[in-house]
Amino acid sequence: MAFNKKQVQVGSIRLTYLGKTGTGTVIIALHGNSCSSESWHQFLEDSAKTDYRIIVPDLPGHGTSDKATDPENDYTIGGLANIIKQFIDVLEIESYICIGHSLGGHIAYNLLVNDPRLNQAITFAAPPVSLPLEDSLPLAYLPNPAFSNLFKGDLTESDIHETAVSFDPHPMPFVYDAIRNTDPEFRIRFGQSVGTLNGMQDEFNVVNRNKDRVILIVNTKDRIVNPTYYDRFNSSMCCMVEVENHSPHHLKNWMLQVLEESIAT
């Protein structure tokens, strides 16, 4: 099924987004670092017969969206969340559910605090980290040689392949394309922002203060995120899946099932 691809002006940049029309609940799906809206294509396919209105943007510096005009501030968790809020303003959305993969999940945690229109956050491969990061990051993430590539500028073809197979043992062509097309400055600036806590929140506290508004999808076979990290959260918030990749592309019907259950309750 073909999905509408559009562009919209958000401040000084143009964002590209995939969309599925519908008269029901609005779903904003956010992709991860060095990914693109294509990573949500399976979810769009699974949701084709629902009445949800689904909007899947390419984040700034990713896919076919523009690069940031103020990378020092825009390529941070807070900056990206602010751009998504402006994007939602432009689309005149009054309430929504945010589904976030990896980086997209961390943006969703920021929106929980800073956008009252957000009803619920559903995240995958986005462990809510606590401050100081030097204590929580080693617990939340597994040792993986490709992880550092997500904070490097220009990547070699070897780096790109290493990163792609860390996402998915058998990556689709769009996974390679997304990594190649990501603004190298994004990875550098984002890495710097994490190191200086620019735009970072204590996500552990945010999530625990919003237990009734968060669902954490935990992949027990993730190659990047440590699934045992989620043991510190209330089990009622966690939904366990078992897929051998870090990407939502292979969560066939899982994401839709979690979404429908959350809306029903």
What's the gist of this structure?
With 265 residues, the protein is of the alpha/beta class.
Structural notes for this entry:
The chain has 265 residues and is an alpha/beta fold. Helix content is 36%, strand content 18%. It is built from ten helices and eight strands. It has helices at 41-46, 71-74, 77-90, 103-114, 133-140, 157-167, 173-181, 184-196, 203-209, 254-264; strands at residues 4-10, 13-20, 26-30, 53-57, 96-101, 118-124, 214-219, 238-241. The chain has an eight-stranded mixed sheet, with helices on both faces. Strand 5 (96-101), helix 4 (103-114) and strand 6 form a beta-alpha-beta unit. The protein is globular and about 45 Å long. The model has no long low-confidence stretch (mean pLDDT 94).
Tags for this model:
alpha/beta, eight-stranded mixed sheet, 18% strand, globular
Structural class: alpha/beta
Number of helices: 10
State the distance separating the first and last CA atoms: 29 Å
Strand portion, in percent? 15-25%
Radius of gyration using CA atoms only? 17 Å
SSE layout and pairing:
Layout lengths: L3 E7 L2 E8 L5 E5 L10 H6 L6 E5 L13 H4 L2 H14 L5 E6 L1 H12 L3 E7 L8 H8 L16 H11 L5 H9 L2 H13 L6 H7 L4 E6 L18 E4 L12 H11 L1
Parallel strand pairs: 3-4, 3-5, 5-6, 6-7, 7-8
Antiparallel strand pairs: 1-2, 2-4
Helix pairs in contact: 3-4, 6-7
